[in-house]
Amino acid sequence: xxxxxxxxxxxxxxxxxxxxxxxxxxxxxxxxxxxxxxxxxxxxxxxxxxxxxxxxxxxxxxxxxxxxxxxxxxxxxxxxxxxxxxxxxxxxxxxxxxxxxxxxxxxxxxxxxxxxxxxxxxxxxx
Amino acid sequence: xxxxxxxxxxxxxxxxxxxxxxxxxxxxxxxxxxxxxxxxxxxxxxxxxxxxxxxxxxxxxxxxxxxxxxxxxxxxxxxxxxxxxxxxxxxxxxxxxxxxxxxxxxxxxxxxxxxxxxxxxxxxxxxxxxxxxxxxxxxxxxxxxxxxxxxxxxxxxxxxxxxxxxxxxxxxxxxxxxxxxxxxxxxxxxxxxxxxxxxxxxxxxxxxxxxxxxxxxxxxxxxxxxxxxxxxxxxxxxxxxxxxxxxxxxxxxxxxxxxxxxxxxxxxxxxxxxxxxxxxxxxxxxxxxxxxxxxxxxxxxxxxxxxxxxxxxxxxxxxxxxxxxxxxxxxxxxxxxxxxxxxxxxxxxxxxxxxxxxxxxxxxxxxxxxxxxxxxxxxxxxxxxxxxxxxxxxxxxxxxxxxxxxxxxxxxxxxxxxxxxxxxxxxxxxxxxxxxxxxxxxxxxxxxxxxxxxxxxxxxxxxxxxxxxxxxxxxxxxxxxxxxxx
Lengths: 126, 486
Description:
By secondary structure, chain A is an alpha+beta fold. Chain A is built from four helices and ten strands. Chain B contains 16 helices and twelve strands. Chains A and B meet through loops of A and helix 16 of B.
């Protein structure tokens, strides 16, 4: 996964950069903890979020969890197919399970969130 | 499994034959117009009365209920519902009342409600009570709306409600429904509210802190007086979720802990039917400063001892429900309270706490108990150890069904992995508690020796393992007539 250059928030969202956009979803660890995801609620294109602001909801057979934006920006795309295929959050969170793309307003925020190594250390300590 | 009543339908079969109308018939099309009439008749099942009775009786026999077996559903207080409650609620003087009868004709019912309010006020330490709310979450909404009006009345527009991360899901849902932003407060390593984190979130935008005590881990919030002081110093109010009131009846009162508003679940603590057997009832009790905001009508006692309905409460939030709440449920709770008396109710909580601690002690070796201190009326254990052996909590819960035991609450509270929340209540005998222990220990052995047996449970239920994921992703809740060849 390192070749994707993923970064993570403490609330288990990942972000990777693709064509200067921030692609956001939830980590494999979070997906495994939640169990089978049955429903995803995502925002509309054009909405602006600041870092750590709630942008959506993911629901599994166990629980409902809020999704928080790891960086600030404006939504330029959402994964509409994911609404029909919530199981992709479990099977391919970093690929087909992506949730939204943001045009970042402060790219330096990326320096403040966790690297893959730091995130792995964070989740294994719990 | 019996087939659906729709699939048993025989075209033209009738339960009753209605005699010809004695008045002239009018055409529906003419009366309502074409835009209000459907084009084809609804596909309702057609069957005789006897077949309908048999169908639903068979279905009811497939149900699990407290009358058929142990039901240790955490935070739900599935206690036995004494049958004398039913006799009281069915007295013709109560059951045959009409809610539009004038107050002077229903003095007995009003006296019962007034007296029940007094009991709930005495037990909670919050003397002003409204019996209208129809369920616990409805009581929560009533309480939070009162808090909202209270702040507005004092010129404040506070926007946030705090809830702990162990809260019942209804707490944040209630706050959001009342228009507040929900902010989560962390628990500490002992499973209690982190007072430091609470203080970090308290400011002049916080309207209330919603708390369950004992909390959903079955633990008493020992810092409640410090919590209460901090909340009030910030100008916020303290809300008590009464779901776990069965733990403290007659022992400690939310009003004395500093709470401003409490909702009760009569269908939990006060033994009225629950879990599909509703309706429920969620009275709220409040302190002096919230009393003017209680819903109308209030039941008042006049100097001559008679009872009346008072609608003249200018600050009231209005009505929360038509008429006076679910009166039949109120009558059952009243019967329960009088069957026990004050000392009996204290004993209820003592026994409930003893039963939970007994189970916790006996199961603590086979399953992990994340919080070691004594519990109140319920406790949380995890099957983390079993999960490492390839069997998750869901499968253990399903396996219990094979032994005629309703599974406990699972995967809640959210802050405990693979959680199982067990609440035995005071109404189970020691023999029944011991049987539950033996079953749980046997399942732990099965997880080690024959995990497939547990992972494929239940085996004896009318329906085996349900595909809950498919049911949630692609719910199929509407019957459609099978297509027949033409």
